[in-house]
Design a protein that fits this description.
The protein is mostly helical. The chain has one domain (11-184). It contains eleven helices and no strands. The protein has helices at residues 11-15, 20-26, 29-36, 49-61, 67-79, 99-107, 114-122, 125-134, 139-153, 157-168, 176-184. The protein is globular. It starts with 10 loop residues before the first helix and ends in a 9-residue tail after the last helix.
């Protein structure tokens, strides 16, 4: 017997969509399922993904942005963690089935903005680079990963940074990776949240 997913949350009132793409995403059952995934854990004491998205959106609201940058950051916020429910969690890690890659693949069906797609896919890369260097003391690997990220985001490093900061200033996440990013990338326009 087939059952359809029926969320217990009114995502429209919780996430307050502002543009047609956000409305469309919230109408998709697989997307709704991903938003409902999660329980309180380190970094995400709020539990479900949609609650984290609300926190990220609140941070986006605190920024002074052009309409296009606001649109981009909001769409990224909606999608960036929504596929954690189906990512590969085994060891060794299958990075082709990481939630950010799955999010990009999903979003490609609804959006062709390469900046949105790239930042969605790469949103955790600064953190992973920092972690390799500062927690695991794998300096060469961490720097190589970071340089690869910078090549991918090129002229969009400021927008990447804004999303990274909005995402990291949630829950009980450590702020050290953002501080490191701000100190490492000299041309950033630093923002306070």
């Amino acid at each position: 017997m087939l059952t359809s997913f029926a969320p217990e949350v009114d995502f429209y009132s919780e996430l307050q969509p502002e543009n047609p793409l956000e409305f469309e995403l919230l109408s998709i059952p697989a997307f709704q399922e991903g938003l409902m995934w999660g329980s309180p854990r380190y970094g995400h004491p709020e539990g479900e993904v949609y609650k984290h998205v609300i926190e990220v959106l609140d941070n986006v609201d605190r920024l002074s942005l052009s309409a296009n940058d606001r649109y981009r950051l909001r769409v990224i916020a909606y999608v960036h963690d929504t596929f954690k429910n189906i990512e590969h969690k085994g060891s060794p890690r299958d990075w082709t089935r990481h939630h950010s890659v799955l999010a990009r693949q999903f979003l490609q069906n609804y959006c062709d903005d390469q900046v949105i797609l790239d930042i969605t896919e790469l949103h955790d890369e600064a953190y992973y680079s920092w972690r390799m260097e500062h927690l695991y003391h794998q300096h060469e690997q961490g720097q190589a990963r970071f340089q690869k990220l910078l090549r991918r985001i090129e002229s969009n490093v400021q927008l990447y940074y804004l999303f990274f900061k909005c995402d990291t200033r949630t829950g009980d996440k450590t702020q050290a990776p953002v501080k490191w990013f701000e100190q490492t990338i000299k041309q950033l326009e630093i923002v306070d949240l």
